Amino acid sequence: MNSSTKPAPGARGPAPHGMQDLTQGPIGKTLIIFALPVLGSNILQSLNGSANAIWVSHVLGEAALTATVNANNIFFLMLGAVFGMTMAANLLISQSVGGKDLAMVKRVVGSATTFFFILSLTVGVAGFLLTPSILRVMNTPPDATRDAITYLRVIFVAMPFMYFFSFVMMAQRGAGDSRTPFWFSVCATSMDVILNPMLITGFGPFPRLGIAGSATATLISQTVTLTVMLIHLYRSDSVLILKRQDWRLFWPEFAIIRTLVVKGFPMALQMLVISGAAVIMIRFVNAYGSQTAAGYGAAIQLWTYIQMPAMALGAAVSSMAAQNVGAGRMDRVSEVARKGVMIAALMTAIPVALIYLVEPWVLLLFLPAGSASIPIAIHINAFVLWGFIPFGMAFILNGIIRATGSVWPPLIGLLISMWFVRVPFAHYLEPHLGQDAVWWSFPLGSIMSLVLAAGYYRFGGWRKARLMAGIPRGAAPDTGMATPAVAEETEAVEEAAHVTIPAKAPAE
């Protein structure tokens, strides 16, 4: 490269296609703009789940709804097994984008793609084979067990496609693009919503599959949308796509895989801690019969919407914080945390208040009119809904802490709040408080999550953590598969893009 055209150190030129610089501009406005498409994707996914629940409950009955609730708890438990690794890949991509290291972005994408392909197949096969045993451990009601096995096994067949769909979505957000994943979420959800009733009821030329139709609709919609999304990214020349000259990067680098596992494992455990606690809680609920379980399942549908704003903001603050860490802008990271917590509290409180106002009518979407499960669901929400406000605030703080690579403290905090507060409270006080001990345990666990997250954010050493410390910088290791032209191109990209990450944030 001619020295006259070489960018000045630290210069911020236009971002390549599919990337957005989150290290500049107003923080609050950028957070909201980035979070809105993520929120839209979450809403669409939740609407999809709600539509499925509506069709299952109204066409197949309350026992079938109980089956999907039990099966979905297992599904989310298995999804948690890979979530941490996708989040680690997201953060690696974000920090590389923040440091303008485009070659590292492609290296992470190549190694992560191979890793997730193998992992998703392993989880899908294991889950399919172990489905009956898992449902027995959950104490699934006998009248719902057969449907739960049928539903869950189709979901496990879809698992590899769902895992890779999640990875590609997270990778795009790590690169600063939250809009493209949103539009493909629209496609996936629309297809699922259309196919769901047709495959359940056998409408027109479609076969009548019953509860398996609901899961099959998910399988088809995820697979087709993933294929179209990859084609779109390839044709738009996204930085996340590896073309023929980059195929050598699919050979996994040990340092990147090690980072995905070492940093992703604690984050995966966080999801497993949450999902595992949910499985234990539903065991408590199942002991009170199908009506209580159906009321709990309907309440969970509403809880999903309550959590969506904080989850969308969590994705936004993680990507923004990680990019600023990569650029050495720790001053902006602190401001992202402050504004993120404030916005999360407000955006969680608003839907909580709205649901309390319209709850009896909303529950009719998930339960038949006159169902004995409706007053049970209303009673549950009186205890649980408001507790999502502190949980949402904790979610933001933990996202900031993880963005630097400090992944164990959030896990320990969740472990304490879920397994040393929520589950023991429900277990030991149930003989005295009855079902109310189970419902009270939710907000108490959420409050403990916030206390622990805020304490570590204020006094912990997360600011000194380094996510990419073990990964060698510069060109990818030579596998002997690159042509001289490819090696020369890679060197030129790195010369133009590489920025040294300072240990401390520069003063403004």
UniProtKB/TrEMBL annotation:
The chain crosses the membrane at residues 74-93, 105-130, 150-170, 209-234, 255-282, 302-322, 343-364, 376-400, 407-425, 437-459. InterPro entries: MATE_fam, MdtK-like, Membrane_Transporter-Flippase. Keywords: Cell membrane, Membrane, Transmembrane, Transmembrane helix, Transport. CDD domains: MATE_yoeA_like. It is found in: Cell inner membrane. It is a multi-pass membrane protein. It holds the Pfam family MatE. NCBIfam families: matE. This is MATE family efflux protein. It comes from Phenylobacterium koreense.
